[in-house]
């Protein structure tokens, strides 16, 4: 998933809490309703709760004071790699696509502070058999694309098949490979039948234009949550332009692509074929969204602090640089800064194919947490130190600190050098990529190099434009051997962490992408992932926490760096601004311009 785009993590939507599946929670809520209780009562549990609202109908409830018209400008130093719904797995890409793509189900943060899982394109949250190995979704009436053509079940089915084309369309979520029928064998619609591909795939059926049936290889109680991803947005086969589709995906939501320059700018305008009566979560208040990527990170924050002219209707999802806090705290701009907990852990993924275990331990020992945070402009508003893989908001989370550094300090270069000498690895080359058109990224890279060299490492930093960095991180054939990224909960469960980024079997299934960015492939870890995944959801929570600690003790596939916080600035003439942790910032669908 997911991750706050500001930290370049990989995937995130929203979350379920309390360990129950959608169907189990729905049954609980039905009982409460029958007993006179409220169907909107969230089940108890740790982490973020989700209320099941299978009867949610469009149009979405109006936001108090909302007005129509105007342009909302989004300024960010980030540069999304793709807006292909199949490949989208960075949360800024997911947040933008929420304006243009619609999915079988959707998650919405409402004014009561709770998340709601609701039907989007589907009429309900899906019907399943007793063991959750078959799910059926029925599409609503009146659904259309931006060109006026009807949305059909076959388009959902094609999108599902397309999601298996990880060689041609790398970087997207991979739950379908683990859970869907023949998920480890089917290679997508672009390959011939002889090579495991083609349009005939047993895992999805369309009995008619309105019905989609999804078949699993093993129980998948949380499929209704996974169905909130753009991978479940419809794509007509005839309109698929393969690797160019992300440049102008066919819109089903309230906005459509008007113009797009990769890494620079995306302009969205109203989609007049969108019917608000079918959509329970989205609004169409502004006339236009103007996303400006690859901005100077300090300059864009200063623009929002100054709040002049067109910047009054601008917003960012980038975290505030610590050097600018004196201009914000205790002053007017503080009223235009939202802060809150995030759902991600930031890591340094260590390539276990190329970095021996003793060197990985030396890297953790040497890691200059504080110097790198300072160089990156981080502050208490943007992070808290981390020592675990699981984000601390995960149900069942257990804190531990194996290396005794608390995720802070500046490392122990003397001890690390001795560890390298003992292992015969003094001068081991640590290789990474960084954005040479982003001053902060270049500064962080320089500090990292300086500190690691002092600990006995050689360093190689590969400069490249920021719109190429994400693709480099996803490329398993890259020369780099560390990847500074993060991971966010797709929903609050270890099920959305360990199977997604530490299952070694994903490596051979995805030869052109790296969902497992540490390339850890250990039989005992793979077996534990299978064992825990098969447990009842309520029993999984403590087991994922145990695996977290065990994996770090035995293998050190990552250096946990921090648990991210979300904070961002916005202009004084923007309304409908809310902090949505699972969007890594604002929910763009709620914004309006104050006229």
Supply Rg: 23 Å
Overall shape: it is globular
Using DSSP, what is the number of strands? 22
Helix segment count?
15
Going across the biggest sheet, name each strand in turn. Answer: 9-10-11-2-12
CATH class annotation of the largest domain: Alpha Beta
Our measurement of the CA-to-CA distance between the termini, rounded to an integer number of angstroms, reads: 36 Å
CATH architecture heading of the largest domain: 3-Layer(aba) Sandwich
Strand content: 15-25%
Average pLDDT: 89
* Main sheet characteristics: 5 strands, mixed
Sheet/helix structural class: alpha+beta
CATH superfamily of the largest domain: Periplasmic binding protein-like II
Domain unit count? 2
Poorly predicted regions:
1-46
CATH topology of the largest domain: D-Maltodextrin-Binding Protein, domain 2
The percent range for helix content is 10-25%
Biased composition (Low complexity): 32-41
Domain Solute-binding protein family: 117-502
Region (Disordered): 16-48
GO cellular component, one term: periplasmic space
């Amino acid at each position: 998933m997911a991750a706050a785009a500001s930290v370049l993590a990989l995937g995130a939507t929203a979350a379920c809490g309390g360990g129950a599946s959608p169907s189990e929670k729905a049954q609980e809520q039905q009982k409460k309703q029958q007993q006179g209780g409220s169907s909107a009562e969230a089940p108890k549990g740790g982490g973020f709760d989700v209320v099941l609202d299978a009867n949610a109908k469009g149009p979405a409830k109006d936001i108090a004071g909302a007005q129509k018209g105007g342009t909302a400008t989004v300024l960010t130093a980030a540069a999304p790699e793709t807006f292909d719904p199949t490949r989208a797995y960075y949360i800024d890409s997911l947040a933008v696509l929420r304006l243009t793509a619609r999915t079988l189900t959707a998650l919405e943060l409402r004014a009561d502070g709770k998340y709601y899982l609701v039907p989007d394109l589907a009429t309900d949250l899906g019907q399943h058999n007793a063991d959750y190995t078959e799910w059926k979704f029925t599409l609503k009436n009146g659904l259309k694309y931006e060109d006026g053509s009807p949305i059909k079940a076959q388009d959902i089915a094609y999108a599902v098949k397309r999601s298996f084309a990880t060689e041609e369309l790398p970087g997207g979520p991979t739950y379908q490979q683990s859970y869907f029928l023949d998920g480890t064998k089917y290679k997508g619609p672009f390959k011939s039948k002889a090579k495991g591909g083609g349009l005939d795939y047993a895992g999805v059926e369309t009995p008619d234009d309105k019905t989609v049936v999804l078949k699993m290889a093993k129980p998948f109680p949380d499929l209704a949550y996974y169905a909130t991803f753009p991978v479940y947005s419809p794509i007509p086969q005839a309109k698929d332009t393969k690797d160019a589709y992300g440049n102008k995906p066919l819109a089903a939501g309230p906005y459509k692509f008007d113009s797009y320059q990769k890494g620079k700018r995306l302009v969205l305008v109203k989609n007049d074929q969108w019917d608000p009566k079918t959509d329970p979560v989205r609004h169409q208040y502004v006339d236009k969204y103007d996303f400006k990527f690859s901005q100077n990170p300090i300059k864009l924050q200063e623009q929002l602090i100054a709040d002049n002219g067109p910047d009054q209707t601008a917003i960012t999802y980038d975290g505030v640089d610590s050097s600018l806090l004196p201009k914000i705290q205790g002053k007017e701009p503080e009223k235009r800064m939202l802060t809150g907990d995030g759902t991600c852990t930031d890591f340094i993924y260590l390539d276990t194919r190329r970095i021996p275990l003793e060197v990985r331990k030396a890297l953790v020992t040497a890691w200059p947490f504080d110097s790198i945070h300072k160089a990156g402009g981080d502050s208490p508003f943007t992070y808290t130190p981390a020592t675990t893989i699981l984000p601390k908001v995960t149900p069942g989370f257990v804190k531990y600190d194996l290396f005794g550094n608390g995720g802070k300090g500046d490392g122990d270069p003397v001890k690390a050098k001795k560890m390298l000498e003992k292992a015969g690895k003094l001068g081991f080359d640590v290789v990474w990529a960084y954005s040479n058109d982003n001053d902060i990224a270049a500064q962080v890279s320089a500090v990292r190099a300086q500190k690691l060299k002092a600990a006995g490492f050689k360093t190689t930093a590969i400069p490249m434009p920021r719109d190429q960095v994400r693709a480099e991180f996803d490329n398993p054939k890259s020369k780099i051997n560390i990847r500074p990224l993060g991971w966010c909960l797709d929903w609050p469960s270890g099920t959305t962490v360990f199977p997604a980024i530490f299952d070694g079997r994903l490596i051979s299934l995805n030869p052109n992408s790296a969902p497992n960015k540490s390339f850890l492939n250990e039989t005992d870890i793979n077996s534990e992932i299978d064992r825990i995944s098969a447990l009842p959801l309520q029993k999984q929570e403590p087991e994922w926490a145990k695996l977290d600690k065990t994996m770090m003790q035995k293998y050190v596939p990552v250096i946990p760096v921090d648990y991210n916080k979300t904070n961002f600035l916005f202009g004084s003439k923007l309304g409908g601004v809310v902090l949505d942790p699972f969007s890594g910032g604002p929910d763009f669908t709620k914004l309006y311009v104050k006229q």
